[in-house]
Write a structure and sequence with these properties.
Number of strands: 10
Strand order of the largest sheet: 6-7-8-3-9-10
CATH topology of the largest domain: Rossmann fold
CATH architecture of the largest domain: 3-Layer(aba) Sandwich
Oligomer: single chain
Number of helices: 11
CATH class of the largest domain: Alpha Beta
Number of domains: 2
Shape: globular
Helix content: 25-40%
Distance between the termini: 9 Å
């Protein structure tokens, strides 16, 4: 079974019965520019089941953020279809109401309002949907959920970077959305704070059943999810289920330039390392039979 088949099969097995896909795209394409056109997304076909925790990786300009913007109804595709929680985004007239109810957002920059406390920042998305008392109660519950009960009356400037991102996560959950889109949420955090944030996201995914799609450049962050989508030049080129640490290391090696050449039988790259032809054949067999084998 290929990687794409394996990952897609896992999505099918995890999909709740009689419920729509949380995310489904059909030949999703986004083109920018009138003269020299840029295909930010190029016929992307994707299915994500409710309750999945998915990472999206790829070099800058590969289409990761464009994909998130379209899934969150912040941008419109040039062609193709997008369904979120069973809703055809093209047919939704009130996009603001859809985003407020269905999608939470967490960005690399927390985007908290600097003059509002953590509690007040979490309340903001609920204005117009809940009354003051209910908003305050819900905001307190969410800050407790992300471990910030003792910081709810602090301004963003009085919080650490990791704490500000936790407030941003609480705010994203304000209206109980089934889907949260996170664009480089650990990008401005140190290693420890980033690990703590991903542990929180995993916990919310497991205990609250929230579907998370996390864009990241950090392989360590991606490994904290359960499925990794890899993009390049606007295309979805890989779809992997996360395995054991050894399996993940094999995937990285197998898809590197070194791994590609070894699989093709070009062992010249190994000669300076003192690796014999017999040892190279063993490596070739490992790569060909690894979870990353084509």
């Amino acid at each position: 079974m290929s990687e794409n088949q394996s990952a897609n099969q896992a999505a099918v097995e995890n999909r709740a019965e009689n419920k729509p896909w949380m995310i489904e795209t059909q030949d999703l394409t986004r083109i920018y520019g009138d003269g020299e056109q840029i295909h930010a997304l190029d016929h992307v076909n994707l299915k994500i089941a409710p309750g999945e925790l998915v990472a999206v990786m790829g070099p800058s300009g590969s289409g990761k953020s464009t994909l998130l913007n379209i899934l969150g109804a912040l941008d419109r595709p040039t062609s193709g279809k997008v369904f979120v929680n069973g809703q055809d985004l093209e047919k939704i007239r009130n996009k603001d109401s859809f985003r407020a109810r269905t999608v939470g957002f967490v960005f690399q920059l927390h985007n908290l309002l600097p003059t509002l406390t953590a509690l007040e920042n979490v309340e903001v998305p609920m204005i117009g949907y809940l009354g003051p008392t209910a908003r305050r109660k819900r905001a307190k519950e969410l800050l407790a959920l992300v471990g910030l009960s003792d910081r709810m009356n602090h301004l963003p400037s009085q919080l650490s970077g990791g704490q500000r991102q936790r407030v941003a996560v609480a705010r994203a959950l304000a209206n109980n959305p089934p889907l949260v889109l996170a664009d480089e949420p650990t990008g401005n955090l140190d290693t420890a704070a980033g690990a703590d944030l991903m542990a929180l996201i995993r916990e919310l995914n497991e205990k609250q059943g929230v579907t998370f799609v996390v864009v990241t450049h950090d392989l360590n962050v991606a490994r904290q999810t359960r499925r990794v989508l890899v993009m390049a030049d606007g295309k979805l080129i890989r779809d992997d289920c996360i395995g054991s640490p050894i399996e993940e290391d094999l995937k990285v090696w197998s898809n590197s330039e070194l791994g590609r050449r070894i699989k093709e039988g070009d062992f010249s790259i190994l000669e300076p390392l003192g690796i014999s032809h017999e040892e190279a054949l063993i490596l070739k067999g490992i790569f060909e039979n690894s979870p990353a084998a084509d």
